[in-house]
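Much of the work behind modern protein science is quiet bookkeeping, done one molecule at a time. Below is the pair of lines this work produces for a single protein:

***
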Amino acid sequence: MLALDFPGSDKLIAMINAAVTGDCQRQTTDCIRNGLSELIRTRAMTLPDCVHEPVADHYARRELYRCELTGFSVVAMTWGPGQGTAIHDHSGVWCVEGIVEGQLEITQYDLRGRDGERFQFEPVGTTLAGAGSAGSLIPPHEYHTIRNPSATAIAVSLHIYKQALTCCAHFHPAGDGWYTKADRQLGLDEAA
């Protein structure tokens, strides 16, 4: 079991453990989303110093906890100024994302068409989320982008996944609203 100790980590893990006991993904993610937002807003947890260190050429992914029993994973992401993602999915894994520091621009997409290995997406909403806000992704509604819109400040988000997310699909523009899919292995940055 991977577990990085930090102030409030016991409250975070207890809250997630209580939420993942049910069979309903919607209820599970709602409970985690509400609990995570509360922990952030009340400052009941303080993430380790390492999560405030950006990586120059990519957003950082640092796994803070992985539960051997149920499989859920807690990953802190550090977004340097302007860093973001392509349109991507979560390989069918639900996720709850909470903003700990800064702001993130999150755009949701609906899959509108597929022609072989080409995919057509339509943006259906963009949110500028600040510290204390949290959202969830439940497949098949999992296509999105995330970007730090600041030119100077970092952003930090905490992601709770049903299971460790080791790969996902990225979608790259191919013209006329179509995208090509590329599978991507997800790495982790050091969390100590």
In short: The chain has a mean pLDDT of 94. Residues 96 and 169 are 18 Å apart (CA to CA).
